[in-house]
Every structure is written in C-alpha cells, then in structure tokens.
Specification:
heterodimer; A: mainly alpha; 3-stranded antiparallel sheet; B: 146 residues; mainly alpha; 0% strand; globular; cell inner membrane (chain B); ThrE_2 (chain B); Threonine/Serine exporter ThrE domain-containing protein (chain B)
Chain lengths: 256, 146
C-alpha cells in the first residue's frame, strides 16, 4: 500500500508544498488541483482537493480509514513561471519514479528557492521593454530612450513598494502616477515628443497579462470563483494604473 | 521587418519579468511575433481593432498550446508574454487622457473600445485552449481504447 515508506500525512505535505509553489507562482487553478491529486495518486493515496486563489484545501483517507484534511492559506501571489514549469515536470516525474519524503521535500525546496532573474537584469529589461514598444508604436529613438529611463524608474518604484507591502494594488497606482508625472516632465523638456507613446510604452510592464490569461483558463475549466477573482484583479490593476496616470496628467497638463 | 523583430523582443522582455526560463525565452518571442504579424495584417485589411486582436490572440493561443506540448511545459508560459504586444494600449491611453481632460463622452467611447479589445484577446486565448482541450478529450475517447 505504501510507496517508499511515506506516511499519509507526509504525502499530503509534499502535495501541499507543490500546490503552494504553483499557486504563488501564478499557475491556473486546474493545474494546482491536478498536480496535488496526481502527487497523492503516485503514492497510492486518494485525495480530494479544492483550490481557491487564496487557499488550498486537501482531504485524504489514511490507511486506517480516517479522513485527514489540511488547509493552507495563500497570501503571497507573485509571477514566477519558472517555478510553475519546474513543479509541473516534478509532479510528472513522480509517476515514473516515486521519491522518498526527504528527497521530494528537498526537490520542492530547491524549486521554491528559485527566484528567477536577478534584480539588475530585470531592471534593465524593464527599461528595454518600453524602449521596444515606443519604437513599435512608431516613435522616434529619442522617445524610446525617454521611455527606457521611465520604465526603469517605474519598475524600481513598483518593486520597492511591493517589498514594503503597503496595500495590494497600491504599487500599481504609484507606478501610474510616476509614469504620468515623468512623461509630462519629459514633454515639457522636449516639446516635440508625443506624450501618449511614452506613457503607453512605459506602463507596458505593469499590464495584468497573467491575470487575464488565467481568468480565461479558469473559466474554461469551470473554476468560476477563481476566474472572477482573476478578472477583478486585472480590472483593479488596470484601474489603479489608469487612475494614477490620469491624476498625474490632469495636474501636469493643466497647472505646470 | 524591423517591426517583427521588435515584436519578438517585446514578448521576451515581459517573459524575463515573469521569470520564464532561459531555454524557453526564444519560443516566447516567436509567439509574440506571430501574434503581432497576425494582428497587424488584419488591422490593415479590416481596420477593426476587435477582429485583429481576436485573431492575434487565437494565433498566440494555438501557438502556445502546440509549443507547450512539444516542450512539455505549461502553455501559460508562452501565452502570457505572447499577448502583451496585442494589448490595446493606445485606446486605453486615450480613455485616460479624455478622463483627465474631463471629456467624459469621448472617454466612454474610447473606454468601450479598450474593453472590447481586451475582451477579444481574452476570448481568442479561450477559444484556442478550448479547441485543444476538445481534441485531447476526443483522443482519449478515441476509437481504439487501449
């Protein structure tokens, strides 16, 4: 019955850890539920699993026939697609070769420790993205360079506020204000540039692409509650950025 | 040609921000590139933002699902950065600008344009995933159950 001498509660622990990494990394709900059930299944444990964007609920029946249930509250939601992919292949590999509890937990800890690309590289990329988009919207090279600088500043502000953890969505509002204010400033310095291009290009990294995609995928798999959650998240992010830019523009264009 | 290369870069950058692995980044870029080519072509022909965004997103969705199967990675990795070039940025900006200048009727009209563009992208992705899921189900039910 038992595989590799894993106790039922250890199996749940491994499954829960995998689910947690997936959910905080930005995976869709069905993928989390699927992974948890599959991990339990590869240790011959039948599990029922229910996942919301804010928590994971697992119940299994242990060898004596008693139900064991664990709830894990998820508060952190980041985007780390590398972790999603790694856990995905980890759970698939368990089907061919089951690991012991220590091995599995060590593997998952390694995945959880991955924090992707370095801060400096991301900062530079956060500048390159607006640079590229300014050109893609048929802007001049000078506009692209201004967007490059604004993009870097916005990303730095967003990361700092996220780390400080003020409120959810506040970082988007602040970044929007910064984008609006800096672009207006740039226009005042170089009046021959187009304001709209610089603003659109520089807020491109703030777009809630993951939230929209996941909202649709969740809806497709019937996870309507999570779909609503993601959709609202996307609307809030877009509104926060938009209002931030609007405030900065109405002040900047009228009084300065 | 330059534009196509820019669209390629334009999906890789969000990919880095979202921590897509290095070996998948190139595939992310191709997805965004294909989506942008589709979007631009149909935008020129039909002059319809909604139709062009929808078709672009369908292409990104189909591409992501197929590459995901080839590389054995989740499709999200490719579709999330891939749709970024399609986002109706100019319409969204006009909405905000009209709001800031207190022209609320224009803001409403541009706002609806933005939302339709975003909705078209979302449903394009949805359609592509739905088709792939359907084929998977049909295969499972296939004529020769093993």
């Amino acid at each position: 019955m038992r595989v590799n001498g894993m106790k039922t509660n250890q199996v749940i622990e491994v499954a829960l850890k995998a689910g947690e990494i997936l959910l905080t990394g930005g995976a869709e709900i069905y993928r989390v539920e699927d992974t948890v059930t599959r991990i339990c299944g590869s240790y011959n444990v039948r599990a029922e699993c229910f996942v919301l964007p804010t928590g994971i609920f697992i119940t299994v029946i242990d060898s004596e026939g008693n139900p064991v249930s664990i709830i894990r509250r998820i508060r952190k939601r980041t985007v780390n697609l590398e972790q999603v992919e790694k856990v995905n292949s980890f759970s698939r590999s368990l089907k061919d070769r089951t690991l012991s509890y220590q091995e599995a937990m060590a593997g998952l800890k390694d995945i959880a420790a991955l924090d992707g690309y370095g801060y400096v590289l991301k900062l530079i990329v956060a500048g390159i993205a607006p640079f590229v988009y300014a050109l893609l919207f048929r802007g001049t090279v000078l506009e692209a360079c201004v967007s490059f600088l604004i993009g870097i500043v916005i990303y730095a502000i967003k990361e700092k506020i996220t780390q400080a953890g003020v409120f959810e969505f506040f970082e988007y509002f602040a970044s929007g204000v910064a984008a609006g204010a800096l672009s207006t400033l740039a226009i005042k310095l170089f009046p021959f540039m187009d304001l709209y291009r610089i603003i659109i290009a520089s807020i491109i990294i703030l777009l809630p692409g993951l939230a929209i995609t996941n909202a649709m995928k969740d809806a497709l798999y019937g996870d309507i509650v999570s779909s609503m959650f993601r959709l609202t998240e996307a609307v809030f992010v877009a509104a926060a950025v938009g209002v931030g830019v609007a405030i900065a523009l109405s002040v900047g264009l009228r009084w300065i | 040609m330059v534009e196509i290369f820019l669209a390629f870069l334009g999906s890789i950058c969000p990919g880095v921000i979202y921590n897509v692995e290095k070996r998948n980044l190139m595939w992310v870029g191709f997805g965004g590139m294909l989506g942008w080519i589709t979007y631009r072509t149909f935008n020129e022909i039909t002059k319809s933002l909604v139709l062009a965004s929808f078709l672009g997103a369908v292409i990104v969705g189909i591409y992501s699902e197929s590459v995901a199967r080839l590389l054995k990675a989740p499709a999200t990795i490719f579709s999330v950065p891939g749709i970024i070039p399609l986002v109706p940025g100019i319409a969204a900006y006009s909405t905000i600008q009209h709001v800031a200048e207190n022209q609320l009727y224009e803001a409403a009209s541009k706002g609806i344009e933005t939302m339709s563009g975003a909705g078209a992208i979302a449903f394009g992705i949805l359609l592509a995933s739905a088709v792939f899921r359907l084929t998977k189900k049909l295969k499972k039910r296939g004529p020769n159950p093993s």
